[in-house]
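Attaching the record inline, Q. Sequence:
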Amino acid sequence: MKKIGVFIILLTLIIVLSFSVLSIKITGETVTGKAASRPTNISISILPAVPTLNLIKPRNETYLTNTSIPLQYEVSNAEKGWYNLEGGENITITSLTSPIYFNTSQGSHTLYLYANNTAGETTKNITFTVNSTRFIIIDDEYEKEEDEYEDKGEMRRNEKKGSSTEFLDYTYEEIQNLTGITLENDYGKIFFNRAINITNDSLPTDNILNLNNNTNISLNRIELNSTALPNFNTSATLWLYNLTFSNPRILRNGEVCPSTICIKESYSSGILKFNVTSFSVYSAEETPVTLPAAPPTGGGGGRGIGFEVTPKKIEVRMKQGKVFKTILKIKNLGKSPQNFTINKAGLEDFLIIKEKEIILNPGEEKEINLIFIASTASTHTGKLIISIKGAKKEIPILLEVKSRILLFDVILKIPPKYKNIQANESLTFDVRIFDLGEMGKTNLSLEYYIKDFKGGTIVKEKENITIETQVSFSKTLRLPKDIPDGQYLAGVDVKYDISLSTASDTFNVGKPKIKFYIIYLLGIGILFIIIIGVILILRYYTKRLGEITTKYTQEMKEIEGRIKKGHIKMKEANKMINRLNAKSFLLTKAFEKGYIKKESYEKSRKRINKIKRELKKKYL
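Structure, as predicted:
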C-alpha cells in the first residue's frame, strides 16, 4: 500500500509540472481557465556545424628541401584558419582556397592546422621530416641555371627547362614510385610512360641520381645510359626539336629502328614525336627515296655473298666488378649458306664470346651473346671481327669501367672542330671534374691517353691537379706523324686513393683526298651561297620576328587577362606555359643574333617568367 501511495504522489507531481511547462511555452503566462488568443513572436536559430578539416600535405614523409613545402587541405564551414610549426607563432591563412607554401629548417617538424567558426574549432596536425641530403638528384641539364649545391650534396629549387619534372615537389617516399617523369631542354624531350623508382639505379646505395652524366638531349640526339640507369630503361615518348628533314625516319644506335621498338607518331614544324620500348641512342635522318630497280641484264650468274651486323658500334659503361650482357646480330644476306667466324682484337680480359663460329642459311639471322667483365677500372678499347670467305666487318668496342667507390667523376668532350683531324696535328678536348664525396681540397692523379680500337695505346700523358669542388679545363695532346687513318679514342682517368673515374670520346684521323684547287673552288662557291643565304635569312627573320613579337605580345596580354579572371583548367594552363616557353626560346635566339636589345630582352623575359609563376601557382 505504501508503494502505491508513493507512486500516486509522484504521478500527480509530474502532471502538475507538465501543465505548468505547457502554459509557459504557449502564452508565457499562467493559465486563467479561459481560452484566449494573442500574437506571439517566435525566432528559430540554426547553429552552424563545427568546421570539417582534412590535411592533405605535408605528408608524414621525408622532404628533400626545406623551401616551398606545400600546405594543402580541404575545409568546409570555416570562417578563418591558421597554422603553426611546433606550436610556435600562428600564421593566419588569408584565403582558405589558395595554395600555401612555407619554409622551415632541416630535421623533424610538426605542423598544426586550425579552422573555426562560431560553433567551434577543428584542429589537425602532421609530423614530417626535412633532409636535403637524403637523396641527391643531379639534373642541371634540365634547369635554367646550374645548381652548385647538388655537387655539394644538397638540392635547392631552380627553374626548370620546359616541362622538366621538379623532383623537389615530391617526398623521398613518392619518388620511389613517380609517374609522369619528364626531361626537356631546347633540343628535345623525354616523357616516361610508366612509374619509376628513381632511387633504384645501378648503385642505389650511393643515394645519388646523376641525370647529367647518364642522359643526353642534344641536337638530333636523345641518349640514356641504361646500364647506369636500369630503372629508367622503360617505354617512353620522345620528341626531337629543330629538325630540318622533310620526311625523317628514326634511328637507334645509328641504324634504322625497327617498328617493334620505335613507333613514329607525328612530324610537324621540325618536331619529331615517337614512342620507344626501351633506351639506347635515338636520332633521325632523312628517309631515302627508293629508286625503281634497273631491269636485269644478260650474262652468267654468280653466287651472291654478303651479310649484315648490328649494332655498328658497341659502347659499355659499368662499375668495376660488375658483369654486363649484350647481343650482336648477324644476318646472312647471301644466296647460299655461309660459315661465319667471330674474333676479337683487344679486350682479352674483359670480353667473353661463347660462339666463335656459326653457319647461317640464306636470310637467317642469329644473336651472339657478348659478356663483359669489368675487372680493371679505366677506358678499354677493342673490336670484333666478323668474317666470311671474301668479306669481313669490324665492330669497334668502347668499355668504360669506373671503380666501385666513386669519390670524383669526370666528363670528357671533344669539340666538333677536332672530331676530324690529321696526323701530326694537336687534339684538344674539354675536361670537367667534380667532387662527389665532399672531399674538400684534394690532389688528384690524372692520366690522359689516345687509343686505337685494337686495344693499343698511341699516346699517354700524366699530371697532378688540385680540386676543391669542381674544375673545368682544356687539354691538348699531339698526334704522332705516322698514326694511321681511322677512328680513335681520347680518354682520361681520374684517380684518388681507391676511387677511379674515367671518361672518353671518339675522333677520326684521315688525310685529305681532294686536291687543293678543288677545295678552293668548292670553298668559294659555298661561301657565296652562305652569304646569300645569310642575307635572305636575316631579311626573313627580321620580318618574321616582328610578326611573331606582335602576336606573342597580344597573346601575353590575353593570358594575363585570363589569369585575373580565373577559371583556367590545368590542361589549358600547361598549354599556356608551353607557348610561353616557345616565346622565351624565340627571345633568346633573337637576342643572341642581335635582333633585339638587351633591355627589351630582359624586360620580356621577366614578364614571361612572372606569368608562368602565376599560372603554376594558381592552376598547377
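The helical segments are 2-26, 211-214, 516-565, 570-592, 598-619. The CA atoms of residues 217 and 399 lie 22 Å apart.

More tomorrow.
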